[in-house]
Amino acid sequence: MANSEHLAILQQGVPVWNAWREENPALRPDLRQADLQGMNLVDINLTGADLREVNLSQACLRQAYLMSANVKEANLEGVDLQDAHLIGAFFSKTILIHADLSRAFLLMADFQEANLQEASLQEVDAREANFKGANLKGTQFQGANLFGVNWTNALTEGTMFSDATPSPSTESRVPSICDADVQARKL
Length: 187
Fold this sequence. Notes:
Blueprint: H1 4-10, H2 14-23, H3 177-186
């Protein structure tokens, strides 16, 4: 359950919350299982927050800061995270269906087994992000920076990668000794 004091501060609005965060930079906010559905949280500082199992569906978190936040098993269906800072955030098993993460910073973010079906990740910077086992069906990655992304067992049927660098089908990798062995067998 969410810390009632933290939730009460959040309910006073983003300016009050952000001022409180500036006064308490070492504190890790606890909003576990809070119902924040449809809230306007533009430019909020949720860095390092515990947001496990939170309901942020249809919420507006444009330009929000969720660096290193734990958003595991949360409901973010239809959330607006455009231009958000999600560096190192943990979204394992999170529902992000129809979410808009356009132009967000996802460096080293973990989306393992998350459901991003039909989400917009256009022009994101997702270097070193983890999409292992994620549902990416119909997701849009146009113009995204996808260097070093882990796509292991991700479902990518209907996913759009136009102008992404590199796309999963063309991502370059360092040849291994196994590649040399395969080439020798072909000769």
